[in-house]
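Morning F.,

Quick status update on the modeling queue. The single chain you submitted on Monday has been processed. Sequence for confirmation:
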Amino acid sequence: MRAAIVGWASLAGILMIIGGSFAMLAGLAGIINPDSFVVTMDRIFRLSTTSWGWWHLIVGAVVFLSGFGVFTGNVFSRTVGVIAAGVSMISAFVWMPIYPIWGILIIAIDFAIIWALTAPGPEI
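Structure tokens below.
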């Protein structure tokens, strides 16, 4: 049983590092290319994504660093990881009209992170 718990926590840490990296890349994309065009059925929107880029960069960095903390078995890192992954999920949902593939990928990884950090049960 203990090996399974450690395995889920390790999976969560790895997913947090990967998910945080993806969020930081999406943030950098928004910062580097601040003017994006979104094409819908009726209109073309011109959006400035700089502030959302900074938001994703910061949230991604928190998730990324918390991923390393999970490997130490730190309960605070797990708690921060769940909260940061939840915030990352919400912000990725808002980001989806601009980068839909990245948004869906980040939401899926954050969901797996939250599940892996909360499903094991007893503390490591």
